[in-house]
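Deviations from the work plan: none for this task. Representative record:
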Amino acid sequence: GAGVSQSPSNKVTEKGKDVELRCDPISGHTALYWYRQSLGQGLEFLIYFQGNSAPDKSGLPSDRFSAERTGGSVSTLTIQRTQQEDSAVYLCASSLERFQETQYFGPGTRLLVL
Amino acid sequence: DQQVKQNSPSLSVQEGRISILNCDYTNSMFDYFLWYKKYPAEGPTFLISISSIKDKNEDGRFTVFLNKSAKHLSLHIVPSQPGDSAVYFCAASATDSWGKLQFGAGTQVVVTP
């Protein structure tokens, strides 16, 4: 079956512009996660969604970052007024349910802020 | 504050030999640990996991060992194969924050012929 997909695969933007990153989780997966990986760093948790529960936003680095999950499926991560330090690979993952710790990752979106 | 640490950024091993990757953690609340493997331009793929109630879990060529008292885990790959060349991430989670994985910085493994 289809895995987690993300779009765009690469995004180059100018400082100060807004960007939207999209994630399509595996069908039937109720939990969805966003991480980012900066150069030479491990994955940093950003936010997760579980069913209709309020999302855990505790990893979002600033109020310029927000995420939505519509209809319990597709998710969009929005970064407003991008800064150069936002340059990273943004990874989305999904799992069957919150307590299913095996998260399946998408290929990521490589964001470069000039 | 880095709660999961992989102190070796790289490891080179000959094909057929054992690869040993190490991971240390500081949060005593962590009770579930995972290893992910990542190829360039791809997302991480799940490899193997271990619960804190165990000290060893084996899956084919991959074995994970957990030493809770030392807050240390390791991944053994035996025998190493060229296709194992990748970045390996250690990750951990705590029961009260399931869904939030803490990752190490990764270890680049290169398997040479």
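The first strand of chain A starts at residue 5 and ends at 7.
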